[in-house]
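Hi L., both proteins are below.
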Amino acid sequence: MQMLIGNHTKLFYGDHAYAELNMWLTKNTFANIFILVDSNTQAYCLPHFLPQLATSLPIEVIEIEAGEENKTIETCTGIWETLSELGAKRNSLLMNLGGGMTTDIGGFIASTYQRGISFINIPTSLLGMVDASAGGKTGVNLNTLKNQVGSFKMPEIVLLDINYLETLPQRELKSGLAEMYKHGLITSKNYWKELSDLSQLSLADLENLILTSINIKDEVVTKDIYENGLRKILNFGHTLGHAIESYSHQDNQFKNLTHGEAIAIGMVLESHLSYSELDLPHKKVEEIKKVLLQTFEKVHFTEKDIAEIIQLLQYDKKNNSSAVNFVLLEDIGQAKIDIHVSEKQIIEAFRFYLA
């Protein structure tokens, strides 16, 4: 099956996804194909993916090291040089087979190599499926700062194969759930309610939930591709979440967090900010905290940790002038953008989280 997302990107999913991909390849005139993988997807996903491709085009595989710490300009330089050495042209196709790190960096490579080549994303993580692989945002980190260098470029295709999720560690699977919870909190009370109890979740149920999340994100992105207004709601939980994630990857004694773990904390904190700034009922803030802590283990923050995380907020990409912009909730399913809060309110939100 297929559908169109973002007025441009084709989404292939279900039993005929690879047949649709192969048919699409025959209708285009690519010179060759490059498949970008990391060291994990090279071992666990590429052996499943390659036999599905029915094409006579030359194929080269480019492998990078797994891990968010490798989402850097230095890694990009290596990929650009490899593409050049292997004869990549403007009419080459890049296939990004991996999680959010791989689709982020692969999309950025495609948007910049020879001023832009076509690419498709085959997300292999839940986070990649519901968030990173679609929407046209690409990017790499600058030291520990998340996605400080990037571009907007839509993939030609996103291919969704939930069988790849069977290769994921439980921690990485949970990481993707954070973005799904976010989609419910910013747009849909019903979806939030559906996600609030996942105890009986099957793989088939998960596919339907993934498609719901993709549709929610697509509705928002289609109306505001370049994040001038509405698309900012997708950043709920990310202002503090990204700062927490960056802090966790600095050279200190703090526990390294996945993207989803940090965003889940950010959503609890920003729900409390919604209570203090927009009068979101406190019982709903308690509900959000309870649901998220059922999936994500509570993390301890010292006063020093909190102070340093607050300092990192100055690097958030949504800032204008000296103001930090937050996305907050007026209600579950209803978000409001460009809200400013005080440092005192942020500290109170951390106290609520830690209580």
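That was the first. Here is the second:
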Amino acid sequence: MLPIAIGADDAAIELKNAIVAYLSQREIPFLDYTAERTTGGEIYPDIAYQVAQAIKAEKHQRGILLCGTGIGMSIVANKVPGIRAAQCHDTYSAQRARKSNDAQIITLGARVIGVELAKTIVDAWLASEFEGGGSAPKVARIGYYEQAGGPG
């Protein structure tokens, strides 16, 4: 199993630290891309882009990005071709992000959810796999629009 990529901005350091401790407790390998980014040297777009690029390069299969709302990290990660990032604030969305949309990255908002909910969201997402089936053509169409810029 490749390590999970994780990254956070200054608004989500405490939640990221709790998730890192939780992953460690469960003996799930991870690589933290946040390292010393709280000093203001890098901003969340840099962290999100770095994690998404690492997943695209197959250094990781999955990633967890955290910021104040999860929105900004999701927007940036989705700019990397081939990456599907989903903002998740409940377990059902986390499961569907993986099962229906083959999302390699989830984004969480530290100002939106608490630590215990975040742990259950991470668990639900990690326990889920892409189901293919009726969702496969939809995910393929996402790739088509990504590459072609859409119809017409």
